[in-house]
């Protein structure tokens, strides 16, 4: 099947809707009317919220490149970004831009207005020009984080114009994981230096550039401000242009982590030129195109382009009415090649430009990466179905053990198994399933799968079922082989990373109301996959109490036992355990007997445990 290049079509489609034009109109109004914080306009069922380019909220430095951890610096505000996996860099954002947003967020008028708009609007579009675009992005991220996943009735979008970069690659990845990438559209002028500024090392001219743009925006409001407009010398423009271009070139070529800018794009980027526009959502290709398009510019055009969005938007909104013809001299072998050539033409890059070959390769790479991820996803779906028989064999083994005359149940039958064909087969299936899921996690880690892979129902549900079915076997094997004596107890020292990842997938899923309804019978699988690990730890605490002479440590052990006993009782009362838990000869029932016997021998009984002397809350 032939590939199809759609970047120009995506840009044309966006331009054909009222969103782009209405967003820019309100941005222009916010810039020229000296709006202090934000301005709101309702068009039909869509409400637009625009933030001005001139931001005067005191103390913030939007010229620096300092970043802060979003979960720490804005604790409780962006709830979706509070967690990150061990070993991964936390979500970082530009410190000055975050400070500007938080100053606005902490005003009662902002939060009251946002609450009102969410309740009254079907669609909410945050927009802004320059620094105002970054505030719009943070506002959209805050609202997306705040809205309950189960009852989102308001569609939230963000359209920025010439906005600076906001955060690191972890932010970009987190947005993709939440499936919010399609909610953000960043319009960038062909040579506009502001969206590219933070890819370069700090320059002494950046504060001057910031003052220049602030004064230019103010000059639009009154003749008085026009007379005070700050000017940039040609020398300053030239040095700034080459500094940013060099920084972008290094980042587009994949420099080392030490040299790489801490900022990275997210969402879709719509690149506008005098000849049209194209839209891309591959971050690596976006950085490459930011460099290649700037390389066709000049020190003057990179400064002036930041103030040309009125022209760009007007031209883009007319583009969809006209048929763009391909006029290059070379022959076109396929619709895909024609699409690439047309996209580059819209990006203002012609076949005779020195960067044409690099730009063409960049567009092809972006297309191929997306196709490869989707293809891998499809192949994994086939592989998952091939492993279904292995899972079914383990389910059959569990049913056999739960109904066995020895009344040990699934966990203890596997833990105390003798050499048998049945046990060996189940153990081999355990290994093969672990290899499959480890492969899935590695592919996701190395960006070989779609970023929202972990939110696809078949993998969320499949990994959860695997975890509930197989982790009890992992725990049984861990204690059967004596690994707890060498490494420590399973939950803290022996649990595989895959199970921790699956915990997060399950926790982050969208929960339906039916999942909260009470059970009428015991679960097929115990809903806490670590339940047997907790049983083993509780039994170990009972053994240690007998030999522990220090009263403080003994009380801590007794407290741990009591906490587990209460937890297990609640699980059983809610029928969230499988029937193997309450089997007559299961490890859990052994714990119940050992705990009852221990309490009967402890004299004097500590005050906090007297409620258990008469068997209170004990499972019969």
TrEMBL record:
Record domain EDS1 EP: where: 392-601
InterPro entries (UniProt xref): AB_hydrolase_fold (IPR029058), EDS1_EP (IPR041266), Fungal_lipase-type (IPR002921)
UniProt-annotated location(s): Cytoplasm; Nucleus
Pfam families according to UniProt: EDS1_EP, Lipase_3
UniProt GO BP: defense response
Superkingdom of this protein's organism: Eukaryota
Cellular component, GO, one term: cytoplasm
Main location: cytoplasm
Protein name: Lipase-like PAD4
Organism: Abeliophyllum distichum
